[in-house]
Amino acid sequence: MDIRVGPFTSPNAGIGRLLAAAGLGLMAACSTVATTTPQGERTVRTREEFERYVEQVFRYQNLVGNDLIARSVSSEEMPPALAEAEEHMVRSCHALNAVVIARAEDRDPGLALKRELARTIAGCDQAAQAVGRLLQQDRATAIVDTTSHL
């Protein structure tokens, strides 16, 4: 199975294994990871809980990214709010994507980037959720526009 991570393809790398290595081996010596929830509350997760959360956010962010690509191919211009939300998601998810790409290339992302991931994963989650909501609204608007011309 090939997995595409940004412009990179890693043969025979299962997403779960790749992410487990990414967050992953995040705090290998630590049994817990201090982070923030999407609601802004400080929380401590076990390493396993954190790895599952990072994988969930990564998968959702990629799903939203794929929807954005499909939308850009099938539609005219992107609404400004959606374009801004996409830019915010890209910035907010930088650490997550950088860690995954490093792992896909069999590189150690380093402690600083791993710590940045722990600090920013909730913001990435929030940004991806916001883009997802805007895409749903955009699809609903497109359906209404299409049916109004019937």
Give the SSE layout:
Layout: E1 2-5, E2 8-11, H1 15-24, E3 32-36, E4 42-46, H2 47-74, H3 80-92, H4 94-104, H5 111-148
Antiparallel strand pairs: 1-2, 3-4
Helix pairs in contact: 1-2, 1-4, 2-5, 3-5, 4-5
Rg from Cα: 17 Å
What does the average pLDDT come to?
A: 80
Strand order of the largest sheet: 1-2
The dominant shape is elongated
List the defining traits of the structure above:
150 residues, alpha+beta, elongated, disordered N terminus
Structural summary, described in words:
The chain has helices at 15-24, 47-74, 80-92, 94-104, 111-148, and strands spanning 2-5, 8-11, 32-36, 42-46. It is α+β, with helices and mostly antiparallel strands. The strands form two sheets. The protein has a two-stranded antiparallel sheet. It has one domain (2-148). A hairpin with a 5-residue loop joins strand 3 (32-36) and strand 4 (42-46). The longest helix is centred in the last third of the chain and has 38 residues, at 111-148. The chain contains five helices and four strands. The N and C termini lie far apart (44 Å).
In brief:
With 150 residues, this protein is α+β, with helices and mostly antiparallel strands. It is built from 5 helices and 4 strands, in the order E-E-H-E-E-H-H-H-H. Strands 1-2 form a two-stranded antiparallel ribbon. A two-stranded antiparallel ribbon has the order 3-4.
